[in-house]
Design a protein that fits this description.
Dihydrodipicolinate Reductase, domain 2, binds NADPH dihydro-nicotinamide-adenine-dinucleotide phosphate, alpha/beta, 9-stranded mixed β-sheet
Length: 393
């Protein structure tokens, strides 16, 4: 039997269902490291902080994915990084010769790690070049762009996955399973705060407060984690939103985007979500769910590492301890396994578009001073991460 067939497949896990896993740690799955020539080749587009700090290091550790090309507007940097990763000179692309990737059989997946307003264009061009795409969050800067990306993937018969690393992260998965298992009881209140101070002297932050490149401010960059978490933890979609923005007009960082945004989602179960995001408060990526029976606290809940999850019952705190993984390696391995037909798609373009719709609805309500906006567009996620993604790498 081939080595890769010996593992319990993810599809089997799906059938076993979240309930079977709830409350107990899922067993480690046998995910063998593929030989180099069988790994799925990734091209990384945009060699900024995330690409250099997380994605390329993640590809070094990945079991099913490997770096085969880089795309950059800075040839010296690109050549240096390519050489350090052992790539040949012809694996370095510029934005001008990007479409040449169509003729490069080494590249199977293109990972878009560009400023948000560039996601749609570079995704659609990669799909037209016959490549699968993994695209960073937020998926794009408008719902229309998201739809065009989904349409392009369908037309090209290629996979489009959004890089929602928390869908694949063990503690987030454990929290989803706690909720699904009934351990928390009926969900009542979900609170999430996701933000930090933006430092616009850093080029990586300068574009984040420029609406033409970012689409929105902290909401699309940080708040999106809270929007997404409320949906994947509760496993339902908000039907209504109200939101408020508060921006200091004297703060030069916030000429084109909002500073503080707070929102409320109403969910069909009756649960209410209080969310906030800001580029002008102390760094936090937290969420907390009060159920009728217990409380689940994740603070931090979405850092690259060091997340602290606990179940709280009155004054009793029980830590959810699960070994950390490299979240980026894991997510790219999942994408590689989707391409290889070994794993179901968990975070497709439709997931990214749902978050983009909710971002638009939050901004619409905030612009109208908190007027309620209906958000029940009939979207339901196709695959529950808690039902298919293994906890231990
Ligand atoms: P950076 O600014 O550090 O990197 C973006 C890179 O895009 C630049 O270094 C540059 O690469 C390229 N680029 C091309 N055109 C422009 C332009 N006009 N202005 C600025 N950069 C340009 O950003 P990040 O790496 O932090 O973020 C990139 C994407 O990743 C964003 O969509 C962000 O939301 C997402 N992200 C996701 C995270 C996660 O945890 N999933 C965490 C952080 C970011 P080059 O010089 O090679 O051309």
């Amino acid at each position: 039997m081939p080595k890769e067939m010996s593992r319990r497949t993810l599809i089997e896990l799906s059938v076993a269902g979240a309930a079977a896993l709830a409350g107990a740690e899922a067993k480690a799955l046998d995910r063998p490291t593929l030989p180099g020539d069988q790994k799925i080749g990734f091209a990384v587009v945009g060699l900024g902080k995330l690409a250099q700090g997380q994605i390329i290091p993640g590809l070094r550790k990945a079991k099913s994915a490997k770096l085969v090309a880089v795309v950059s507007g800075h040839p010296d940097k690109a050549r240096r990084i390519a050489a350090a990763e052992g790539l040949p000179a012809d694996a370095v692309y510029s934005y001008d010769d990007y479409d040449r990737i169509a003729k490069d059989p080494r590249i199977q997946v293109v990972y878009i790690v560009l400023p948000n307003s560039m996601h749609a264009d570079y995704t659609i061009r990669a799909l037209k070049a016959g490549k699968h795409v993994l695209c960073e969050k937020p998926m794009a800067t408008s719902v229309a762009e998201c739809q065009a990306m989904i349409d392009a993937a369908k037309a090209a018969n290629r996979k489009l996955m959004i890089a929602y690393r928390c869908h694949y992260e063990p503690k987030n998965l454990a929290a989803m399973r706690k909720m699904r298992s009934g351990a928390l009881g009926k969900p009542r209140l979900f609170v999430t705060d996701m933000g930090r101070q933006a430092d616009v002297s850093d080029p990586s932050d300068a574009w984040r407060v420029d609406k033409s490149l970012a689409g929105s401010g902290a909401l699309g960059d940080m708040g999106i984690y809270g929007i997404s978490a409320s949906r994947y933890i509760l496993n339902e979609e908000p039907v209504e939103v109200r939101a408020w923005a508060n921006t200091d007009p004297a703060d030069p960082r916030f000429k084109t985007v909002d500073d503080l945004i707070a929102w409320q989602f109403r969910f069909p179960s009756g649960a209410i979500c209080n969310g906030s995001t800001s580029f002008n408060y102390n760094a936090t990526m937290s969420y907390e769910l009060w159920g009728e029976k217990a409380r689940l606290r994740a603070d931090p809940g979405a850092f690259y590492g060091g997340n602290r999850y606990e179940m709280v019952n009155g004054g009793a705190f029980t830590s959810i301890d699960i070994a950390e993984v490299d979240q980026f390696a894991r997510e790219m391995d999942w994408m590689a396994d989707v391409v290889r037909g070994k794993a179901p798609m968990v975070s497709p373009g439709e997931e990214g578009m749902q978050d983009m719709r909710l971002i638009s609805a939050i901004l619409e309500s905030a612009a109208k001073g908190g007027t309620p906006v209906k958000t029940d567009w009939g979207y339901r996620r196709a695959v529950d991460p808690a039902a298919v993604v293994d906890i231990v790498a």
